[in-house]
Amino acid sequence: MKFDPDDWRDFDWRDIDFKQLRLLWVIPVILVVFAAFSSVYTVQAESEGVVLRFGKYVRNAEPGLRFKLPFNIERVVMVPVKRQLKQEFGFGTSGATNPNQFSAEQTLERGMVTGDLNAATVEWIVQYRIRDPDLYLFEVRDPDNTLRDLSESVMRTVVGDRTVDEVITVGRQEIEADALLQLQELVNKYELGLSIDQVQLKNVNPPLPVQNSFNEVNQAQQEREQLINLANGEYNKVVPRASGEAEQKIQAAEGYALKRVNEAEGDVARFNAVMAEYLKAPEVTKQRIYIETMRQIVPNLGKKIIIDEQASQILPLLQLSTESAKN
């Protein structure tokens, strides 16, 4: 078709529809705005973003404001890596945020058989975190339900290795520790990308028909332990006191014995000294001993009158003066 310049003379600009031209500009603007909004996203502080490009893993996104390719070329999956998740077995708490927190088969979960072929109802919880988002999203199809199956299998194995008394009373901490180790090993083996923080037993009871009898036995054992503790307390209070009193008396007796021995040795030494002097001069020693003895005895006798054995009467010896009479 050949263009004729004369056609421009016949062209009327008023025939152009400018409203249709404006619509043609609106479409690119909308695309630009949509691209801007679809390329910006925010990763929360407790999460980590996994970026997929056409469904294939590309990278991880840290918390904060991030960008991606628009028009759903890249898609972001938020994984709460810093949030502690929980699964309950044998019971269920209302208002759970985790859709896999409890199951509908709670009665079957808590019914177990112990190592001594007794039945027990066991309720427990598993607290865990998402350690590796890549493994959690792509390695196993349903990691949360897989964890439920592994946890139930491990708990039945651990409970089956113990007696009913250990499960219900003294072996709870050991069961929790063993279950935690075995569950973490299986989680690592299946590459679930999870980290098990805690396995905690909740209500552990015998079956309902024998629960009252078991409680009576348990109460009797507790009373027995209480009486033993009271007896040990009384023993620890009385025996040390008696031992202290015995030690005190022994020390007093030993002190008295040492005192008597020292006094006897002193008397012997003094006697030997006097004996040595007596052998040197027997009469002088006798006279000195007599005088020393009388010096100790006479002051205790009171007022005495000593006269000569040759005196014929006592009157000449008495002082009958006025001063004496007053006395």
TrEMBL record:
Q: Where does this protein have coiled-coil stretches?
A: 210-237
One GO cellular-component annotation of the UniProt record comes to: membrane
Where can this protein be found? Answer: Membrane
Q: What domain of life is recorded for the organism?
A: Bacteria
- What is the recorded membrane topology of this protein? Single-pass membrane protein
Question: How is the quaternary structure described?
Answer: HflC and HflK may interact to form a multimeric complex.
The function of this protein is:
HflC and HflK could encode or regulate a protease.
Protein name per UniProt? Protein HflK
Source species: Rhodopirellula maiorica SM1
